[in-house]
Amino acid sequence: MTDRKLGIAIAVLGFIGLGIATYLTYVHYAHLKPICTTGGCEVVQNSQYATFAGIPVPVLGLVGWIGILFSLLIPGDLGRAATALLGLFGFGFSVYLTYLEIFKIKAICQWCVANAVIMTLVMIISVVRLWRYQPPTAATLKA
């Protein structure tokens, strides 16, 4: 798979993640109940863990997804490294939030799970993209 295709896959996933984070941010500030089939979304949304360092978790997600999408616009190795770093950080934060849901809050939010799965995929693809990329050589440009 080419660098371009991997970047497109990350962008598609990033826009889905951005959509989830936007929805959850809207729900938070509008003081609405999230649409939820698991029954745990409102419990998670109203828990003491719904903010991190005083910032609502959905806002952190929004900022994270925007950062990942913007990192795709940075050319070369720096852009690939930035995307992978943000993907790894987002994955780690998702693991922490999932831990909180399961062991502290004892409720599962479908939106949080979806976001964690998407972030995991972005992390994997972005790290593969960073490791696999080979800049074109004169020989490959002639072919």
Architecture overview:
The protein has 143 residues and is an all-alpha fold. The chain has one domain: VKOR domain (de novo design (two linked rop proteins), Up-down Bundle). Helix content is 74%, strand content 3%. It has six helices and two strands, in the order H-H-E-E-H-H-H-H. Strands 1-2 form a two-stranded antiparallel sheet. Helix 1 packs antiparallel against helix 5. It is elongated and about 60 Å long. The mean pLDDT is 94.
Based on the model shown, name its key terms:
two-stranded antiparallel ribbon; mainly alpha; 143 residues; 74% helix; de novo design (two linked rop proteins); single chain; 2 strands
Q: Could you tell me how far the N terminus lies from the C terminus, measured between alpha carbons in angstroms?
A: 18 Å
Major β-sheet, in short?
2 strands, antiparallel
Total strand count, please?
A: 2
> Might you state the CATH topology name?
de novo design (two linked rop proteins)
List the uncertain runs.
none
Number of structural units classed as domains: 1
Helix and strand sequence: HHEEHHHH
Shape: elongated
Mean pLDDT: 94
What is the CATH homology-level superfamily?
A: VKOR domain
Question: What fraction of the residues are assigned to beta strands by DSSP?
Answer: under 5%
Strand order of the largest sheet: 1-2
CATH class: Mainly Alpha
What structural category do the secondary elements indicate? Answer: mainly alpha
Percentage of helical residues? over 70%
User: What is the number of helical segments per DSSP (H or I, 4+ residues)?
Assistant: 6
Nearest-angstrom radius of gyration?
17 Å
CATH architecture: Up-down Bundle
